[in-house]
Amino acid sequence: MPAEIDEIVLGDATTSYSEYGGYQALAKARAMSPAEVTDELIASELRGRGGAFFPTGRKWSFVPSKEQIPKPHYLVVNADESEPGSFKDNEILSRVPHRFIEGCLITAHAMDCSHVFVYIRGEYSGPYEILVNALEEVPKDVFGGVTIVVHRGAGAYICGEETALIESLEGNRGQPRSKPPFPAISGLYASPTVVNNVETITTVAPIIAMGAAEYVKLGVPNTRGTRVVSISGNVVNGGNYEIVPGTTLRELIYGPGGGIPDGRDLKAVVPGGSSTVILTKDEIDVGYDFDSLAQYRTAMGSAGIVVLDDRCCIVQLGVRFSEFYEHESCGKCTPCREGTRWLTAILRKLEDGRATQADLDLLLDVCDRINGKCLCPLGDSDAIIVASYVAKFREEFQAHIDQGGCPFGGHSSLDGVLAPVAMHSHSPVAEVPA
Amino acid sequence: MSLYERIQEERAKYPPESRSAVMPALRLAQEEHGWLSPEVIREVADALEETPAYVHSIASFYDQYHLAPVGEHVIEVCTNVSCAVVGAQQVLEGFERECGCHAGETSADGKFTVRAIECLGGCGWGTIVAIDEHYRTHVKPGDVPSIVEELKHAG
Amino acid sequence: MSAPELVKVTIDERTVEVPKGTGMVETAAAAGVEIPVFCYEPRLGPPVGACRMCLVEVEGMPKLQAGCTLTAQDGMVVRTARTSRQAAQGQNATLEFILVNHPLDCPVCDKGGECPLQDLTFRYGPGNTRMTFPKRTFEKPIPISPLIALDRERCILCYRCTRFSENVAEDGQLVAINRGAQSIIATFEDEPYKGHFSGNVTEICPVGALTSTQYRFEARPWEIQNVPTVCGLCPVGCNVSATTREGKVKRVMSRNHPEVDEGWLCDKGRFAYSHLDAPDRIATPLRKAGPRRFEELSWDDALDAVEAALRRGGTSTVTALSGAESVEDAYALGKLLRQGLGANGAVLPEEIPDGVDGYRAPLSALRSAKTIAVLCDEPVVERAPIVDLWLRAAKRAGARITYTRPDGPVDALVTDRPHLGAQAENVYFLPRTPNGRGVADAWSAAGEGEERDEKPRVLVISGDEAATDEAVRAMAAEAEVVIGIGLFQSSFRGIADLVIPGQSYLERDGTTVNLEGRLQRQRRAVMAPCPDTLAFVAKLAERFDVELSPYTSVVFDEVAARCFGGIAFAEVGETAALPTRAERVAPGPAPAQGPDPGSGLRLVAYKPLFSGVAVERTPELQFQRPDAEVQLAPGDAKARGIRNGQTVTVSSNGTSLELRARIARDLAAGAVRIAREHAGDLHPTVEVRP
User: Per the CB < 8 Å rule, is A238 touching B20?
Assistant: First the structure.
């Protein structure tokens, strides 16, 4: 277990303004020009922690000057963390709200912006209250004319996609926009906008404080600095851990994760949130960094590691995640709206033992027909992960067909799980049962 | 302060002519009225100078706005994978039993609404149960009766 | 302005040059390649890339791209389904997904035969279905208003209709509710889609989800004729297509004139055609047979009777015109009366300002205006609906729009200067009647002299609009003989001694001049139940030794030589051009405004669009009548502590009303608006209290 791993646990005291010790990195940043701050971020090689892993400094550098586009600039912080398996931003906001606020103000300085909107997921009442209290603690003059508005979401995974988030923040249905134009040119209120994840923003202050030259020494090529990983599922010590990349997935699961409880065996790991390609128990010696995971055609994503033991039926896993994507599909583009629903239906047929060989072929073909055709990554994700389950656990899918039912015989850890999509519609105006 | 005035306060946080205040307005209205009846939707629309159809269109997009009446306490059990593999379904069934209603329904006495919900963002501390929007972590099926008992006495 | 940069794009191995940034659908069309679409419709705003029907392969991009959101960049190499297997698979996949829930009810669907989904499925779709699960089913059809039926099973959720409601009409009435596969199109609760432009959604729907209730099961595409004509119900003169079957108008659709209407049509223009078959339609000449009763008259007897009446009136005959006549009908009547009788007196439908032709511009020029001053107290949408859409488009494009009290009795829109005057860039006059300008021109071209008998012995009332006008009816009460020409008995009952049947704009050939000053041609879509007014007037003219042809084209040539620069009838065309601007004349001094209302608010009791003889005879349009509300400018509401939606008391000397308050941003400070039918006996100056 690497020494750098630092466990953070929900319920620990929130850092108050006085404990935090002033906004020294902010003072340092304000002594620099906005371009210098951006250059420092570029030099730090910090990449977006929301999942897309885009270089943060470069994103900031895309914002045109106010001479080029004479409109206000906006910083929008994506605190709509909703990826199954990921819960780091929840704890970051709860534990170190001032480091986060300081990051907002440094970023606002770097992009010459005086309006920051923090879009926090609606369910995060706890972190919301902590953040609002923390904002009240900060002396007015520290803001330097920057206003920070905390905007609460209301339960829609898709609003974590940056253009959907902007739409939602503008008071529209949270449906992604087609790009271009990119938010850097025309984002919130058709103005230049940077959308950054909570963890990304929270990392800005330490980078300025320690200097990019020091920060970039941490980690491995293409995955610099530290990263907060969320470990959950069948592990002894579920939680968030700040790590320096360079460790393997196995080390994370058996180190801070404490291994598999109840004497069970590991079966599979979802390495970076529900949207990432699954790894089998034989693939976990992979380094937990961008390049290493890419060799397995998977990704760190939002760093949500979901550990599954040998009681988990992979077909049921497909059903449950597909139900999630079906439920969360915004309904804008055809392949996602219709395809995720169709995938769920075929997977359920497989799980119920009603499927034939043709249905398994159809499942993969429908995946193929969704993947790469959608407006945003949501539909693609469902198709990619379901196809990966079949690719890596084909014999288990086959067994469902051959045995005419689930080989777990009702003893899978996911057996009978009720998903919201199967429970109720969003509105009383529902469809008529067929 | 009236709901109308509080909505105007929210509107002031965003650029004029933007519709951004619709979400905070719906949240305020729901806190005041418990759920978003057609009449409440109309009230919000008037305060925002928008149409009720628009407000309903927004409200129905998100899971947290209640477009049907809910119980005094709303119990939401995460049944996504991380919680499910550590027993979320058994926790959900526990609440169904203790509250006397199926998931997605409200108990006959109007006390409880029980729902399954998508990932609440507390995966490492499963099972996560949000009770009136505040999280309980590490909930086990055995914890359910005492939680329900506590809520009954909380009024 | 510099010429746009041209770029070379290769589509399916054909290279074309287009201006940089041209949409890929248009770029492909320029190369003779079709990119099929459902959600793409440039008139609805920026492309959204929702339906994914337009997927194409672009060299250098790993994934398929939505063609509708791509723009032409130099050197781009694009492959559509014609030459790319990947793109073909993408399109086939999209159609399969769309058809997963679409019912196979084409044989009973009104859209069948003219349905984009049907057409594209034939060309690009899968030949069979692999979806073995139950399709989504809904209660159907749901009337989302008395005019429009919604079939949610057929809906493919392309969001064209909701984008129209949100981005074009901006009425916020038709929306998507729920999320994902549960999404449906809906209005609020069971309320109807109330809005001036709702019918457009039936036209832009690419499937049979939104259909007209009037057209439901009325005709199939192979048994109809479409007649290109121009709407005659308001001064905009939208270009329309009248669908007829077996001699009846079955529907009216828009016919895109990019300078006038951009392919939009208001609900009055679209749905009010059923007035043609109203029960009180006049088909034969009538003579008064009692206080409230008419008797039928033969055409020969009618000719004799009208001739006798006109001889009795002589120069003491006055003509009241509606402003709904064709140029030719108005000219013919003028020529008969002015040259045959020396009866020059006329009540013209409205005052036509001098000099606006020097500021003439197409309505489409509004979109690029920087500032627009609206000098009209009444809502523009109630007077000239499509102009309201152009104003909204201008606002979305960044124009600053101000609303001020009119300078005088004439209402207008002025761009780039705040007031009427020589500094204005473009001026759009806002008449109250559909052809007020053309009728005024025709009347003045028909004779010389201006005198008018204030108490005429004989009054000729041309048109139902004039016959239902209070001032005209007062004149009629004083006249010895009243001759009416019109469509409906009830318009003339009690006031006219003789009535000659008239024709609607859908039943005659002729021309009309819209608010821009654009001369447009109306074509006969169906036969009226009676001979043309022009033929009858020509017969009468013979008896007064006035040379008048019964043929529209001949009469037109006569008027055109005097008023329209001698343009030939055939040259007016199906898509009429705007005449070039006249020389500018210095405008006269602005007339004094009415008295200042002091501390009170100026009441504007407006005539709603959904009123008048045609609307009254269209039962399906009754729900569109205005709400009982009072509109206030934001500042006036705030000063009085009035909230949007609140019930308020509107009062003036001794009378008061309770109405719902609505804060309106298209209203000058100091004025309040109430639809005439809700304004009761209020005086011109009112006060409003919460």
Answer: no
